[in-house]
Each structure stands twice: as C-alpha cells, then as structure tokens.
Design goal:
The complex is a heterodimer of chains A (881) and B (113). Chain A is built from 29 helices and 22 strands. Chain A is of the alpha+beta class. Chain A folds into four domains: 69 residues, no CATH class; 185 residues, no CATH class; 313 residues, no CATH class; 216 residues, no CATH class. In chain A, strands 1, 2, 3, 4, 5, 6, 7, 8, 9, 10 and 11 form an eleven-stranded mixed β-sheet that branches. In chain A, helix 13 packs antiparallel against helix 19 and helix 26 packs across helix 29. Chain B has one domain: Winged helix-like DNA-binding domain superfamily/Winged helix DNA-binding domain (Arc Repressor Mutant, subunit A), CATH 1.10.10. Chain B is elongated. Chain B has a three-stranded antiparallel β-sheet with strand order 1-3-2. The two termini of chain B are 31 Å apart. With 113 residues, chain B is an alpha+beta fold. The chains are: A alpha+beta (881), B alpha+beta (113). At the A-B interface, helix 1, helix 2 and helix 4 of A face helix 2, helix 3 and strand 3 of B.
C-alpha cells in the first residue's frame, strides 16, 4: 500500500463514525433510487422495496466489507482479543482450570530449569570460571586423589600450562570464644589461592606471596558470614588477633559475601598453608587438592598431559612415594556440578513430562469446548466468517490462555524456586554454591516464554485441526449430536493415552527413586545404629600437646560419660561409620609377593568397647581389642571380612603379619580378629577392605565418641556435650547427632531423598492430572452418548451391559496407556541408572505397583461416569433431544 | 433464466474509473451507467461496488464529495483524480494486451480445429 493510502487509513480511523454514516447514507440513497426505478416499471412500492432488499443483499455484510477495506488488520486482532476475553469470561471454570494447569506445568518446569540454568550455565562465582581447572593426583583406586604438599610444590614450579596453581585443604581449629574453645572448620590454602579464583577481599587484603611458607607470620582471612556473626561486622577487625588452637592469628582480610568455594564450603576462615604438619612433611602423605588457571590457548587436555608428564618424572625421581601416582585435571565446574547434573537433568525431564501432561489436559479441555462450540462455529461460518478468520479466533484464544498461563507460571515458578531452596538440605546447598543464583532472571523468563509458545501452538493447533475436519452443513444440521463427535472421541482418547503413558513414566521414575532410597537406607550397615549418640571431640595442642596426653584423655572421657544415666557403653573412634573412603593406609602383607603396588585399605582407630558394645559388630574369627592392646604391647589389628577375602583368599588370616610398603619393623602388626563388614564408606559404595587399630596404639587429638544408651539417644546429646566439656572447657566439642540421623543425613541419602521427594511430587501431580483427564474423556463420551445409551436401553440392553460398555471403553484406554507407559518407563529407568541404587529399570515390583496404582485410579475415574451411564432413563434420554 | 456473464475479476476498478472519466457520478449512477453502456450485459453488484469505491478512494484515484442531485437529493459524487486518470490509462493498456492475447489464443484454436 502506498504511504498516502496508509495515511488516509489513519485519517479514516479517527473519522470512523463519519465513514460509517457516509456509507449508510450512500447505500440508502442507492436503494431508494433502485426502488424508484422499479416503481416506474410498474411495481407497487412494497414489491419494489422487497425486490431492492433482495437485489442489494446483506447490508451489514456489505458494510463490513467496506470497513475491511479501510480498516487495519490490527483492529480485527483487537476484535478477536475482545471476543476471546469475552468467551473465557463467559466460561470462567474452563479458563481458571486451563490457566491453573498451565501455571503448574510452566511453573514446575521453569523452577527446575532455574536450578539447571544456575548449575550448568553459571556455576562458579569466580572470574572467567571456564579457565579454572581442578588439579589432583590419581591413583589406582582413586581416579582423583589428594596431592601431597611436596608434589604440589613441584607441580606448581614445573608446569608450563597453568598461569597459576594453588592448593587448598581443610583444617580444623579450636577457636577461642570467651572462656570456651569451639572447633571450627577452616580452609588452608597456598598464598595465591584467591588470586587464582579471581576473588578480591571486601575488606583488608589478600594473602601476600610467601605468606604460605613454613614459619611465616600467622594470618587469617574471614568468610563474610563469620565476620558478621562472630565479629559483628566491625571494620576494625582487620589487624586484630584471633586464637586458633592456641596460636594467635592476625586477621588481614574479609572475603566477599557471595564467595563460596564448594570443596571447602563450610570453612569459617582461611589461613595460608604455613607450617607443615606431620603429613605434609612426607611426600607420600596426600592431603590437599589444587585449583589452577589455564594459560591462554591451553586446553584441559594439554594441562592434563603436562601434569601427567610431571607426575611421571616425579615417579622416577621418588619411586618410594610416587610410583603409580598419575595426574587428574578437569574443569572446576565438573568437580562442582558433576555430581548434581544427573539429578538436575532427571528433575528437568520430570518437570517437562509434567508440563506435557498439563498441556495435553488443557488441549483436551479446548477440544471439548470446541466440540460444544461446533454449532457456534457453523453459524458463524454460515454468516460469512471465513475459515481463516475462525482459525484466527481460536489461535487468539489459545494465545490468550497461554499468555495468562505464562504469567501465572512465572509467578508460581518464583514461589516454587523459593520453596525448593528452603527444602534443599543444607549440606546439599553448601555443596551447590550456584543455588544462590537461582531465581527469576532473564534466562528463566525466556525459558518460560519459550515453553509458553510451545504450549500456545499446541493449544491453538488442536481445535484448528478439529475445525478443519468439520463441514459446516453437517454441523448445522445435526447440531453437534451423536455420531458427529466420533472425531473428538478418537482425538480425546489418543490424548488420554499419551497422558496415561507419561503418568506411568513419572510414577515409575518416582517408584525407582523411592525404592533406591529404601534400599539405600536399608543397606546392611553391619552394626546396630539405634540408641547411639555421637559427638566430635578435639583436644587442643596447648592443653594436650603429646600423644601420651591423648591416651590419658580417652579413659577420662569414657568414665565421665559412662556415669551419665542410661549409658551402656562408650566408644571412641577416629571416624564414625558411613562416612567416606577416607583415612586410608597402604599395606603390604608379609610373606606375599610385592611389586610396590598400592594396597589401599581404610584405617580406623577404635577403643576396645567401640565395636562389640557400641556398634554390636559381629566377630567372625579371633578376638576384638582389649585394654591390654596399648603401646606397651605389640601392635595388633582386626580386619573386616572384605579385607580377609581380598588379601587372604582361602587362608586363615589370623596370626598373619601386615606392614607398610617397606615392612618396617615398627609398622608390623598381627591380625588377631576378623569382623563382619561395618559400613565405613558411603551407603551406595562397595564395601572396602578395612583394618582397625586400638586407639591406644595410634592416638589422635581429634576423635569421635559413639555412646550406646538404654534410653533416648536424642535426649542424651546435650548431656554428652556437657559431660565432655566438664572434663576440660578447652576441649572442642561439636557435631552432636544421633547415629540414625547421621546415616539418614549422609550426603548420599540426602541426594536420594531430595530427588525422590521431587520426582514423587511430580508423579503425584501427574497421577491427578491424568486421572482427571481420563475422567473427563469418559464422562464427556457418556454425555455425548446419552441418546445412544437411551436407544440401547429402550431396545432392551441391561443396565449392567451399559455399565460394562463404558468400563470396557475406559479400560481399553487405560490398558493401552499403561502398557505403552511401562515400556517407556523401562527406558526412562535405564536413562536414570546413575541415580538408582539396588534397583533395575525393569524392576518388576515397581512397574507392577505403578500399573496397579494407575489402573486402580483409572477404574475409579471411569466408574463414576459408567454409573451415570447405567442410570440413564431411556425415556428422558430420547425425549431430551 | 439465461445467466448474465459475470464481471471478469479485476475489471470493476477499470470500469468505474472509465465511467467517472466522462463525468462525476454517485454510486447508483455508476452502476446504472455501466449497465446502460453495456446494453444490460454487465451488472455491477452493489456488494462489490461500495468496497471497490472505498479501495479507489484509499488509493487516491477518486475523490468523493456530497452534492445535491437534479432531484434535490443529497448524494455522494465521485470524481476522477489525476492519479486516477493515469491509473485508468495503465489499466486500459494492460487490459487491451490481455484481450488481444486471449483473442490470438482463441483464433489459433479455431484454425487448428
């Protein structure tokens, strides 16, 4: 159109009234003239008027055509919108249901996407996070294992691919708070650690180069939270000293509020590596990891090759400690997000399926409505509405619904993200620093928008497809009755089958996860966790400087705790069970061939009471420890069944000697007992070989108490803390928890529980939606077939036969849906294998359970309409039409 | 009833412009004029006349103003504009080319038959 033409249109837009008046008057004049002429030809005025009317045609239609010429397309769009809003308001039940369903689907999927987005797209709150790599050594049993300090220093010096490499390790300190000491967790890092991450302190300064050398001045940087809670957020804190395990440390800086380093997420403060502890003075003792920044143009693979080469060089140089020690380099994001990725993807898939069910439900609703609007459509078509115009009307309605659903969805997504964040176990949150970035942002809104467009297309297309197959005449003549609804029945039925299928997949997924969780929590841990209270104790060097002091402390604590009411036994151990594959020892069996391989076993130091009386572990052969197994007697060891099988296959391990790699005389110990496996590592791990020592032989100033009581172990916890502090207020006491809670709260169990609850929630919603969908289809089918049922009954069909007829129809739909769904569920189960524990994708009982639950609900959903069908009064049914 | 030939699509605008070239007319007059000139062969349906007139107005090929007729009735008279005249010439050329072409095709067909 020319610019002039467009401008005239605009002018006309404002002179719309006048335009309509002009046109009316013009056409009236035309009719008058025509009538006059006819009268002149000899007609009566009345005849002339009728003839004119007939000739002239539909004045309204003509006016519309003229309006269309001068009108804008947007005007008709606005008209469509107004009409759509009117339509939806006329039927608020439909609109509200549809919008709620969409909000649920869009909300759930957007909320989960928010987590996925935060985890995978922006996981690390550091400068240029994609250039950061996790650097570690690798050993046979551990593809990623700790670096030793000596190795780290060599790697740092010799590598050519990293612009910087810095180490970190956890460190427990006793923080002096008033008159008591409180154990806290801190991070110990090399001097350039924060610089490598690209993190600047908000207050004070970063560690200076050289501050991590042994003998350097003791300094510390505070985490923001620590600064706030323990130091009141005072700015003068810089330069003050703080007592850590009896040594004064000068506070030099405060880290930013958003700083978190996932591997040391619980660190309250950070100190430079500084003095070497016992482990760090040996090259064979591994206790740290490192993070590096890639040089420009260097890939992770190149860095890995570089580190491997250095490791090989060191292995030649120091065969005693470095043989078989390789290198591991991976993107830092992989370390932090790798664990949660399968969960997030599973959840996203679950949310997507839920969205699919919700959209299918809304589409069925639209179908039913378009069915009941067949007559309206036919009438509008007969009055001259073009198919395009009618289709546009439906598309507008679909878009309007989807738009409203999108808004409601984003709102509910914001709510759900908040709830999820709150529900997320604290430990999991600490392990997932990206969680704080989860929220409504450009990404999530864009995602919701994309999902909405998909949903809108589906909702617009469904009735349009329906419309395309309608012939106007048929629809007008039979008034939307009886057989003409076959299309809807078929289409609606197909949709319900899809819905049921998806519901089966979600239910089965939830079932698999729930069963995994059950299996996990019912892993045979090899001990009795009930009625056991535990607490961590740390004896500060200033009061207990030597192993002799620690050995004296153990019986003191034991007798003090034993005097508490109800306490039956007091165990002392270096590590509580169900923890990790940590605190390992490399062994060599005397008299067996040895080629320097790393025979890695778990090492636990325990007091005599711990295993028989507290854990109630089962002795298989030999004996447990006694009070006589102390430093005055030769060292002995008790091993677990896995170790006996692995290192003494077909032999009696009792009396055999075990030593370190060199079989040094001081390291030799005799096997005196074999116990059934006590689960020391994570619940979903394989049992590992483990050796136990008497704690009087290998004492430590950091240990755990496990106390068996006849009474309530929860009630015992505060008493226990008080009793230990009563011995010496300088003892660090923390982490009091019952054994059962400790196992239930282990990271493995929590991750499983979290995903089980979420997927379970999705499955419950899917169940409700799909059953409602099935109910809708069957009920609608019954209402459409009332007349047919009436005829059947009039012809002598029994009520029971009608009942069966409807139930058979519903049963067939449910049967197909469930059967197809079971097939998909096996596939889905295979895909989420990494999340499952002790459950296979073709787990028959889960699948059967799902089929039974869904079948039962489907039966219930079809029973009500079937009953209604059987109650049809044939006389009324036939007369009603 | 012997059916009258329908107006060829696209020709109505041209006919209106041609009619208005002679003298300004109102809608009814245009319809009558076309009917008369074609010896009652061509009938312009009112349903297409008025939308067509609006279209021509928008294109700027005709102007409209309210005047009184000889019988002292108010009527909307359409006048051809300069642009309309140009458009008419353009349409006529196009039409003649087409008629000629159709004619040639028909003649060839007759000769061949």
């Amino acid at each position: 159109m020319t610019a002039m033409g467009w401008w005239r249109k605009v002018k006309l837009l404002f002179g719309r009234e006048r335009f309509a008046g002009d046109l009316d008057e013009e056409m009236a004049f035309h009719r008058e003239q025509m009538a006059k002429e006819l009268e002149a030809d000899g007609m009566t005025p009345e005849q002339a008027r009728v003839a004119t009317m007939r000739r002239f045609g539909n004045a309204t239609r003509m006016r519309e055509q003229s309006h269309e010429v001068v009108g804008f397309r947007a005007e008709t769009v606005a008209q469509d919108m107004r009409f759509a809003v009117r339509q939806l308001r006329k039927n608020p039940g439909f609109a509200v249901t549809a919008i709620l369903m969409l909000a649920l689907g869009i909300g759930a999927s957007t909320a989960i996407f928010g987590f996925v987005d935060a985890a995978m797209l922006s996981p690390l709150p550091y400068a240029q996070p994609s250039r950061l790599v996790d650097v570690a050594e690798s050993a046979k049993a551990f593809p990623r294992s700790n670096l030793s300090r000596a190795d780290f220093e060599d790697w740092q010096r010799m590598n050519k691919t990293l612009s910087s490499l810095d180490a970190y390790t956890g460190q427990g300190y006793l923080l002096r708070v008033g008159s008591v000491s409180e154990p806290i967790i801190a991070g110990r890092v090399s001097d350039g650690f924060f610089h490598t991450l690209g993190v600047q302190p908000v207050l004070g300064r970063d560690f200076r180069p050289g501050e991590d050398k042994p003998g350097a001045a003791k300094v510390a940087m505070l985490a923001y939270g620590t600064w706030m809670t323990r130091f009141g957020g005072r700015r003068e804190v810089i330069g003050e000293t703080v007592g850590l395990s009896g040594d004064p440390y000068t506070i030099v800086g405060v880290l930013p509020q958003n700083f978190v380093f996932q591997p040391q997420a619980t660190a309250e403060l950070w100190t430079p590596l500084g003095d070497k502890n016992g482990c760090e003075s040996r090259r064979s003792c591994h206790n740290m990891f490192a993070v590096g920044r890639l040089r420009d143009g260097v890939t992770v693979a190149m860095a890995l090759a570089d580190m491997r080469q250095i490791a090989a060089q060191l292995a030649i140089q120091y065969p005693g400690s470095n043989q078989d020690q390789g290198a591991s380099v991976q993107p830092l994001s992989e370390l932090i997000v790798g664990q949660v990725r399968p969960i997030l993807l599973t959840l996203l898939a679950g949310a997507g399926l839920l969205l699919a069910i919700a959209s299918v439900n809304v589409a069925s609703l639209l179908l039913v409505r378009s069915e009941s609007r067949r007559r309206e459509i036919a009438v509008r078509g007969a009055l001259g509405a073009t198919p395009v115009r009618l289709v546009r009307q439906f598309v507008t309605e679909g878009l309007l619904l989807a738009g409203a659903g999108c808004w409601a969805g984003i709102l509910s997504a914001a709510g759900m993200m908040g709830v999820l964040k709150a529900l997320m176990p604290k430990l999991m949150q600490q392990g997932a620093p990206f969680v704080r970035n989860v929220g409504v942002n450009a990404h999530t809104v864009l995602f919701a928008g994309g999902v909405t467009v998909l949903a809108a297309v589906m909702m617009a297309v469904t009735p349009v497809l329906r419309l395309a197959l309608t012939d106007v005449h048929g629809a007008l003549s039979d008034g939307g009755r009886g057989a003409a609804s076959r299309f809807w029945r078929r289409m609606g039925a197909n949709l319900v089958v899809v819905e049921l299928m998806i519901a089966v997949v979600l239910l089965a997924g939830a079932g698999f996860l729930a069963k995994s969780l059950y299996r996990l929590l019912h892993v045979d841990v090899g001990f009795d966790p009930s009625h056991v209270a535990t607490v961590q104790v740390m004896a500060p060097d200033t009061f207990y400087p030597k192993p002799e002091n620690w050995v004296e402390l153990y019986p003191a604590i034991r007798s003090r705790v034993l005097s508490l009411p109800g306490v039956e036994a007091v165990g002392i151990t270096s590590d509580l069970p169900v923890q990790c594959n940590c605190d390992t020892d490399w062994i060599r069996i005397a008299g067996k061939p040895f080629h320097g391989e790393h025979n890695e076993v778990l090492e636990r130091d325990v007091n005599p009471e711990y295993m028989p009386a507290v854990l109630k572990a089962r002795l298989i052969a030999g004996r447990m420890f006694t009070d006589a197994d102390d430093m005055k007697h030769p060292q002995v060891t008790v091993i677990n069944e896995t170790m006996a099988k692995k290192y003494f296959p077909g032999e009696d391990p009792l009396g055999k000697m075990i030593g370190n790699g060199n079989l040094d005389a001081t390291s030799m110990r005799q096997v005196v007992g074999v116990i059934a496996d006590v689960r020391e590592n994570a619940l979903d791990d394989q049992p590992w070989p483990a050796e136990y020592f008497s704690i009087y032989h290998g004492p430590d100033n950091y240990f755990a108490l496990a106390v068996r009581t006849a009474g309530d172990e929860k009630a015992l916890l505060p008493e226990l803390v008080k009793a230990v502090r009563g011995i010496n207020p300088n003892l660090g006491v923390n982490g009091e928890i019952t054994m059962v809670d400790q196992i239930d709260g282990s990271p493995t169990a929590m991750i499983h529980r979290f995903s089980t609850w979420l997927v379970g929630g999705f499955a419950a919603m899917a169940l409700v939606l799909s059953v409602v969908g099935l109910y809708g289809v069957v009920a609608y089918s019954v209402s459409q077939r009332t007349r047919e049922i009436g005829v059947r009954m009039a012809l002598g069909a029994q009520r029971s036969a009608v009942h069966r007829l409807i139930l058979r129809e519903a049963g067939l739909l449910a049967g197909i849906g469930i059967a197809a769904g079971l097939g998909c569920a096996v596939g889905a189960g295979a895909l989420m294998k990494s999340l499952l524990f002790g459950v296979r994708a073709w787990d028959a009982s889960t699948l059967a359970g799902v089929a039974a639950v869904l079948g039962g609900f489907a039966l219930l959903a079809s029973f009500i309409p079937a009953r209604r069908a059987a109650r049809v009064n044939p006389v009324e049914a036939l007369r009603a039409e | 009833m012997a059916s009258k030939p329908e107006l060829m699509p696209g020709t109505l605008d041209m006919l209106i412009l041609r009619t208005l070239k002679r003298a300004p007319l109102h809608g009814y007059g245009i319809a009558q004029s076309i009917k008369r000139e074609s010896d009652d062969v061509l009938t312009v349906e009112e349903g297409s006349l008025y939308p067509a007139l609006q279209r021509l107005l928008l294109q700027g090929w005709v102007k409209a103003e309210w005047k009184t007729t000889e019988t002292n009735r108010r009527a909307r008279f359409y006048t051809l504009t300069a642009a309309g005249k140009k458009q008419l010439g353009f349409e006529l050329t196009k039409f003649e080319l087409m008629v000629e072409a159709i004619g040639r095709v028909l003649r060839d067909a007759e000769e061949a038959g």
